[in-house]
Design brief:
The chain has a nine-stranded mixed sheet. The chain has a four-stranded mixed sheet with strand order 1-10-9-12, with helices on one face. The protein has nine helices and 13 strands. The longest helix has 20 residues. The chain is α+β, with helices and mostly antiparallel strands. The protein has a single domain, classed as q2cbj1_9rhob like domain (Jelly Rolls, Sandwich). The radius of gyration is 19 Å and the shape is globular. β4, α6 and β5 form a beta-alpha-beta unit. The structure holds fe (ii) ion.
């Protein structure tokens, strides 16, 4: 067993092993259910709740119909075309637009509390000072952009079913706090493993594009860390000693992380108390995901 006093590794975060190949596939299979079965079979529903309770992460395959997927991607792509072309007049009339050189509102809480959709557009800077959100479009409350978007968002998220599932998994009623649409294009300097605070909080992620391999920047999760006191305690002590943010999961040695490769239309649900991160992307890669946050 290694200790914190180890002179070679003291001071550096310790990463989990990233599962790949057949090991990754069988881990995925153990965490997956089909959406059709989840919505129609009590047995599958209970199995899914149990997976989420024990492992902190669940994959729901084919949660979105091809038609709904096409509809939301059409809406999103039209918006991205307008943003990229600088044709922002129409967007600015029904959303709060935060452009690279023109921020209208600041701060996460203000985005969550805004009455309109908020479009945060961040680009990579030519001087290389990209910042941690380079190449991102984050949209808060995408359902407020248009009626077509509202319908598409509703048919992707399955909020009633997922709320019931979370109740069965966490034994606590959870409410939708915020919906987001995230587009990552060539985001390389992603945050390391962390948790989103210590309270019970879940997110569901609906992938709108395929996430085929690590270069696409998959969501990575370390199963069962949402209820593993050891890695949390170890990380907390290390963070305090090295001046890191208290929610970084800096000490995950000996654990396996799962890159959640997925097809467009698949949904991943995870407890945000567990260790997770977005894997850095290839500069040319793109990924779009619709996220729903559930809180008490
Ligand atoms: Fe997070």
């Amino acid at each position: 067993m290694t200790s914190m006093a180890d002179p070679i590794s003291a001071g550096s975060p310790r990463l989990p092993r990233l599962l790949s190949g057949a090991e990754r596939e069988s881990a995925m299979d153990r965490l997956s259910v089909e959406f059709n079965a989840l919505s129609s079979s009590k047995r599958t529903f209970l199995k899914a709740a149990w997976i989420l309770r024990r492992q902190g992460v669940l994959v729901v395959r084919q949660a979105v119909t091809p038609q709904a997927l096409e509809a939301i991607n059409a809406e999103l792509n039209q918006l991205l075309l307008q943003l990229d072309a600088g044709q922002t007049k129409q967007l600015a009339s029904n959303a709060i637009l935060n452009l690279p050189n023109k921020r209208r509102i600041k701060g996460y809480e203000n985005f969550v509390d805004a009455e309109q959709a908020v479009i945060n557009h961040r680009v990579k800077r030519p001087d290389g000072r990209s910042g941690s959100d380079a190449g991102m479009v984050d949209i808060f409350h995408p359902e407020r952009l248009s009626e077509a978007m509202a319908n598409a968002v509703t048919s992707c998220l399955h909020e009633r079913l997922i709320s019931r599932l979370l109740l069965a998994a966490a034994w606590l009623p959870m409410r939708v706090k915020c919906r987001n649409l995230y587009v990552n294009r060539g985001v390389q300097d992603t945050r390391g493993y962390h948790c989103d605070g210590r309270s019970q909080k879940f997110k569901s992620f609906v992938f709108l594009t395929d996430v085929r391999d690590l270069s696409d920047g998959p969501y990575c999760y370390v199963p069962a860390t949402h209820r593993d006191r050891r890695s949390w305690k170890r990380s907390r002590q290390f963070n305090a000693a090295h001046g890191l943010n208290r929610h970084e999961y800096s000490q995950l040695q000996g654990l396996d992380a799962l890159p959640l490769l997925a097809k467009a239309g698949d949904m991943v649900i995870s407890s945000q108390r567990g260790a997770h991160r977005g894997h850095p992307q290839h500069p040319d890669a793109g990924r779009a995901v619709l996220v729903n946050m559930y809180q008490r």
